[in-house]
Amino acid sequence: MNRIYYLVFFFIFFSTPLLAQTEEEIRLKSIPDSVPVVIDSLYREDQFYIGLTFNLISNKPEAISQSGFSGGIHTGFTRDFPINKRRNIAIAAGLGWSLNSYSHNLFIGEDDNGETIFRSLTRDIDYSTNRFTAQLIEAPLEFRWRTSTPETYKFWRIYTGLKFGYIYHFRSNFVQPDNQVVQTDVPELDRFRLGATFTFGYNTFNFHVYYSLNSLFPEARLNEETIDISVFRVGLMFYIL
């Protein structure tokens, strides 16, 4: 899984700036001098997005800690609705897909009665992998401000809003010598997600933050303490028209 994240990051990091900076230049050069260039006064911005994030678990019990690499890949489409004459202020709504992985020491298993077990893994336990992954369908809703014009594709942007999501696939994987525990059905998991987002940047590279507003396991307990963990994601967001 880590190799996939690195390959995707490498591809996006090197290919996206080139596409963003040369696409319009190539288009203009292909137009004969005799053909007038028509400026689209009803332009829209940032219809497609691709993001890479580092994922953190917050509000976790004292016994829970993260280790190893935790990351996410995010992609989708938004419909841009400018709300002023200059078209630099807009509302955007869309649909996307997200894959997130978290490496930590929270063991998720099942007892003989089918009840979920939550335990913290201590350092004396020999294991190589303990992580859970979640695949989501997401619906972003953003308020957008930017310095764009119909003639330029390089501008400052500040986007903020909410992101609604649903975890359609969850997998907890624990691996140790001669033993593996996989859980995909965890009743304590809140599959409906709600998070606040904030994105700002210039041209290709944009800093992105996501913070979940509801707990992943609101009904779960660890040593009589509620596992009220939330998700915090920070990374880069790339936009394509």
From TrEMBL:
Pfam family, one: OMP_b-brl_2
Every Outer membrane protein beta-barrel domain range: 42-217
Protein name: Outer membrane protein beta-barrel domain-containing protein
